[in-house]
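Running this now, will post back.
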Amino acid sequence: MPSSHRRILLTTFKLIDLLAIAISFAIATIAAHHQLRTVSFDDFLAMRITVQNFAIFLVLFLVWHFIFVFSGLYNSTRLTSRRRKLIDVIKATISGTLALYAIALLFRIVLITPIFLAAFLTASSAIIILSRGILGYVLKLMSIHGRNLRHMLIVGTNLQAVKFAQKIEKNKGLGYHLIGFADNTWKGLGEFQTTGYRLVTDLNNLAEFLSHNIVDDVVI
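Update: finished.
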């Protein structure tokens, strides 16, 4: 995948996640308001935006962004199972909710109650999982039609490597284009050459090959 396309895709994921946080905050606010009822909802919506409020929301967005980055949610997950993706998202939203709770304690935000946090965690997890599922399905369709591809190089030419390549090529929805294989001469190389796959470089020249060709993933 060209680096420009990948940047656009990552930006899309990040914007969707930020939108999910904003929507979740609104949902949690409604839930907390029904619990507190200290002011009318119209008055709450009419509250002016202060520098402190803006700073708090900015810190919240930045904290969530860094949590998602360090949780690996913006890394390539084409070979990751759905269960693993689901667990990673839930771990990230739990960490983000705990960070929100810490911010609430620091700035003494009365609105952020246990009800607020529970609603925020539930809404953010559901929205992010749903949005990523929809976007993932769209990207899968694009991959099947030859777009949104990542270029893969496999290091090794044994039977296990060949079976892995066959599995990758069979599942076109993963969105991989197999460049070829890298390996040195060994006794099983003759058998590998009968498979029809390309040996594009030996291991001694692997670094040079990677620097002169577009390779997104190297699998050993």
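Helices lie at 3-36, 41-45, 51-70, 82-107, 114-144, 159-170, 189-193, 206-212. More later if anyone needs it.
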